[in-house]
Write a structure and sequence with these properties.
The protein has about 425 residues and is of the alpha+beta class. The protein is built from 14 helices and 13 strands. A seven-stranded antiparallel beta sheet has the order 5-4-13-12-11-10-9, with helices on both faces. A four-stranded antiparallel beta sheet has the order 1-7-8-6, with helices on one face. Strands 2-3 form a two-stranded antiparallel ribbon. Keywords: Hydrolase, Signal.
Length: about 425
């Protein structure tokens, strides 16, 4: 998959081999050598991705403990993860692949019940884990629900909702274009360039430290307001996966709901799905949550979210949580031609699209997935009612071959649990 802003594939760390990946099980941050300056490095990320709140500012997301926790039941037909699957004509073993990909948690649900659940490197069902850009999909489905409720208009200009962005690249883009990432935005993700926007965005939440004398934007909103278009290309022509868009979507959500995005996430998702634990969201100095990549939660709670999507927006008790029209629109996917025009329809992504902050397979089952770099997945097959969650601490931000292997494994999983 193409790299996202939060990827921050730190040049020095990208050359480290998997052998440098020290297990974090039973280790302290001192023993791991983890600091706020090396959060994303592959030799420490098996610790930092499980304990990110030790290194950055966060916003707490309550699970509404006064409400009922909705238990995830175990299926009477469990799936053995020690299974082989075909990948490009070769037989691979799922457990071997999960170890190679440095998985920390793996859960499969069928019809809302756990058919497989396994943890690695000392993680458990209680462990919070950084979800990276999977966060985008939580943001996207909330925005899609607000559209379905008539609170947001996909055809309206972003500048009409957020005056602070009128003079930016977003001002004359529509809500729908930003939500589907087809707007024109001059946003460099060149990891060889220390002045690229990718690093400026990360500095607002502390994922990379500010150098001495730094005078760039200090908050997410300041950063977004400075961004401009990339030449004269019209908005809406082609898809480009750029994380800044998601934080604009969150700003729109906050504006129309009249409260911080973190509170909307809590009220509309976390307190409605019977989550086992609260969650937390990375935030900037202005206490604005990073809606594009800052969510930390348990694997089981990620599975509850995926199951809600598979069940048409209903929680495990059958209560409607997300507007059904938002789910239906999301399942349809986006425009594959715009996806291809942006240079994304290749390899495992051939024929895919992007809609409402989800990646869409465009297959016969209308399957789609939330993806985060370093190996985070929430895969939803609404036709077969299967959800697959993986949390990981991969050694690199994006490994296309790993993503392709995961898709082949998921195809076999769906075949076996029918």
């Amino acid at each position: 998959m193409k790299k996202s802003i939060i990827a921050l594939a730190i040049i020095a760390s990208s050359t480290l081999s998997i052998a440098h990946a020290t297990s974090s099980e039973g280790k302290t941050r001192v023993e791991m050598g983890a600091t706020q300056f090396n959060i994303l490095y592959p030799d420490v990320n098996r610790y930092t991705y499980k304990k990110l709140s030790e290194f950055v500012h966060t916003k707490q997301i309550d699970n509404g403990g006064y409400k009922q926790v909705i238990e995830l039941c175990k299926s009477k037909k469990p799936l053995n993860l020690n299974m082989n699957f075909d990948h490009l004509g070769k037989q691979l073993n799922l457990l071997d692949v999960l170890h190679k990909h440095r998985a920390d948690a793996f859960i499969v649900l069928k019809d809302g019940k756990i058919v497989a659940e396994q943890y690695f490197d000392g993680q458990s069902e209680r462990t919070h884990h950084q979800m990276m850009s999977v966060t985008k999909s939580f943001t996207g489905i909330i925005a899609a629900s607000l559209v379905a409720e008539g609170k947001l208009d996909r055809k309206a200009l972003v500048g009409a909702y957020i005056p602070q962005l009128i003079q930016s690249a977003f001002g004359m883009a529509t809500v729908g274009q930003v939500l589907d990432m087809t707007n024109n935005l001059n946003y460099s993700e060149s990891y060889e360039d220390p002045n690229a926007e990718v690093f400026k965005h990360a500095k607002t939440v502390g994922l990379t430290p500010k150098e001495e004398g730094y005078n760039g934007p200090k908050t997410i909103h300041q950063f977004l307001a400075e961004l401009q278009k990339d030449g004269d290309r019209s908005h809406g022509e082609e898809f480009h996966y750029l994380t800044a868009n998601t934080d604009v979507v969150a700003w729109l959500i906050s504006t129309v709901e009249g409260k911080p995005f973190s509170e909307v996430l809590e009220e509309r998702i976390w307190t409605q799905l019977g989550m086992e634990r609260g969650a937390y969201l990375m935030s900037d100095p202005a206490s604005v949550g990073l809606a594009s990549g800052g969510l930390n939660g348990t694997a089981r709670d990620m599975a509850r979210f995926g199951q809600m999507l598979a069940d048409g927006g209903k929680n495990l008790l059958g209560e409607q949580v997300i507007h059904p029209d938002a789910i239906a629109e999301t399942e349809q996917g986006g425009d594959p031609s715009k996806f291809a025009k942006g240079g994304y329809s290749e390899g495992a992504l051939k024929g895919w699209s992007y809609k409402n902050q989800f990646w869409h397979t465009m297959n016969d089952n209308n399957a789609y997935t939330a993806l985060g770099i370093f190996g985070q997945w929430i895969y939803v097959d609404p036709t077969e009612n299967v959800v697959v969650v993986r949390q990981a601490s991969a050694e690199k931000s994006v490994v296309d071959a790993y993503d392709h292997e995961m898709l082949s494994a998921i195809d076999e999983i769906i075949r076996r649990v029918k």
